[in-house]
Amino acid sequence: MSRTMAVDLGTARTGIAVSDELGMLAQPWKTLPGGEAALEAVVAAAGEIQPGRILVGLPRNMNGTYGPAAENARSFAENLRTRVACPVDLWDERLTTVAAQRALRESGRKARDQRGVVDQVAAQILLQSWLDRAPCDLS
User: Fold this and answer.
1) What's this model's pTM, rounded to 2 decimal places?
2) Backbone angles phi, psi at 24, to 5 degrees
3) d(CA 90, CA 122)
4) Residue-wise DSSP of 77-91
5) pLDDT > 60? residue 137
6) Read out DSSP for 26-91?
7) Which of 18, 37, 109, 115 has the maximum number of C-beta atoms within 10 A of its C-beta?
8) Is residue 139 part of a domain?
9) Does the residue 9 lie in any domain?
10) Does 57 fall in a domain?
11) Predicted confidence band at 139 (pLDDT cuts at 50, 70, 90)?
12) Domains in the chain: how many in total?
């Protein structure tokens, strides 16, 4: 099985996480630029990782509706699909950043020390939720 890469898209920073080759565990990988520079940075990361699939976090409101950030994620995913050879899917990322901040705080990291890694951990949480729900390929 090939690795899966997850993208937590942000205006300032973009977090990247990758799965192990068995597709069981997600791990934080890198923080990339956000905003306008995100597409090129993610394409370069995909070239380095060579994933079999890329997940882009789709932010939804708590009531299930979509806002401007979701439209940005959809547009990003469409542009990314034209630049990489693997499938690009959207995956619900509700509360991943909140969960990442909590996990980092519980591990002893102060809020000011989280800035460089919180996006990676949010991408890791997004990816792990996908891995936990994806059907196992035991062949």
Assistant:
1) 0.83
2) -110, -35
3) 15
4) HHHHHTT-SS-EEEE
5) no
6) EEEEEEEE-GGGHHHHHHHHHHHH--SEEEEEE---TTS---HHHHHHHHHHHHHHTT-SS-EEEE
7) 18
8) no
9) yes
10) yes
11) very low
12) 1
